[in-house]
Amino acid sequence: MAPAPVQIADDGAVRTVTVNRPDKLNALNRATLEALDAAFAGAATDPGVRVVVLTGAGPKAFVAGADIAEMNGLSPVQGRDFSLLGQQLMRRIERMPKPVLARINGFALGGGLELAMACHLRIAADTANVGQPEINLGLIPGFGGSQRLLRLCGRAAALELCLLGSPINAARALQLGIVNEVVGVEALDARVAALASQLATAAPLALRGILDAIHVGGECALGEGLEYESTQFGLMFATEDMREGTAAFLARRPPVFQNR
Ligand code: COA
């Protein structure tokens, strides 16, 4: 039997989701997209999970793209369906009610960069390579890359990456704002674990409010976004965690957030 294309492991409140096709550099075929979608749907509703780390198995790749072998035989209708399946997954990740951190351990190309861009934070090893090389296949990005790259780092960089199709190294990706941080490959696990642990102990309802406000703000006019922020801000005063956070500050002790 083929190994599961996605592995799930929990360490306390941190869930790690690993794309597990290392012999194909973790390329995203239908089965993997569906397994990832199920993994994120499960993590979204599991009260024991406060943060999700997404990564790829093996030393070489986060995800080297959509599965080219599988795409080669698709009809236009199947191609559109494949795009919609990928977009649905990216949307689910982007709209997760808890933070999702991409651990970029190597190639993040095509669908791999699209997957990383749907996450809320991106930490890359200095050996990572990212890009949108679809043009070299006679294709365009299909899992949201043309839209998220544009919004993440602007028109010039989005056009450069998509038109030229040449991967860029981690340092350039940092410069362009595609990744949040670059660390030595040997330090990647420790840095990801530290950030995940920080997020796992933060106030979950406030984290969710931030994710919602920034997502909504990215899709609407400033006035509407500001109104949404005020409503979310007001809602926080209904939480025990807000009372705890402010009381702990005043008492000069660390807060303990209960997700209430
Ligand atoms: N889809 C399907 N299979 C893929 C893949 C993809 N996106 N990326 C890599 N693979 C497979 C290769 O076909 C190869 O399989 P095989 O051993 O059965 O022949 C295996 O993964 C290893 O890849 P290989 O190309 O031999 O590794 P490399 O170190 O020489 O090169 C890359 C690494 C990432 C530069 C190269 O694999 C590549 O260009 N991949 C495609 C990237 C891409 O265009 N992504 C966008 C897709 S829309």
From TrEMBL:
Among CDD domains, the record links this protein to: crotonase-like (cd06558)
Task: Please report a single Pfam family linked to this protein.
Answer: ECH_1
PROSITE patterns for the chain: ENOYL_COA_HYDRATASE
Q: Which InterPro entries does this chain map to?
A: ClpP/crotonase-like_dom_sf, Enoyl-CoA_hyd/isom_CS, Enoyl-CoA_hydra/iso, Enoyl-CoA_hydra_C
Question: Keyword annotations for this protein?
Answer: Lyase
Protein family per UniProt: Belongs to the enoyl-CoA hydratase/isomerase family.
What is the recorded name of this protein?
Enoyl-CoA hydratase-related protein
